[in-house]
Specification:
This protein is mainly alpha-helical. It has a domain at 54-102. It contains four helices and no strands. The chain is elongated and about 70 Å long.
Length: 102
């Protein structure tokens, strides 16, 4: 029975990949600053996207309250009605701003 020859992976390919460069870290202070700025931008975008999602959820909840009838206080229904109208537009504006980022 012939033996199956296993080939070893070419580790030089890993050493030359971008992933390895990221794991190794920046070589200069300027590279480190660029990397940290890119990470900060990515985290900021994630947080803005989370806000957009929460605004959508808040708009849906406000709409439920606005349409909830006499179970809710009149002032709360009025504010909820305005929020239900305003929040989706605010969320869309935030979405458009994020979409324009490079």
């Amino acid at each position: 029975m012939p033996t199956k020859k296993t080939s070893k992976p070419d580790l030089r390919l890993v050493a030359e990949s971008e992933v390895y460069d990221l794991m190794r870290g920046p070589q200069t202070t300027a590279d480190r600053v660029k990397q940290l700025q890119a990470e900060a931008r990515a985290l900021a975008i994630e947080q803005v996207e989370a806000l957009e999602k929460i605004l959508g959820e808040a708009a849906a909840l406000a709409d439920e309250i606005a349409k909830g009838g006499d179970a809710y206080p009149v002032g709360a229904r009025e504010i909820a009605s305005r929020l239900a109208e305003d929040l989706p537009a605010k969320a869309e504006t935030i979405k458009a701003i994020v979409a324009r980022l490079p």
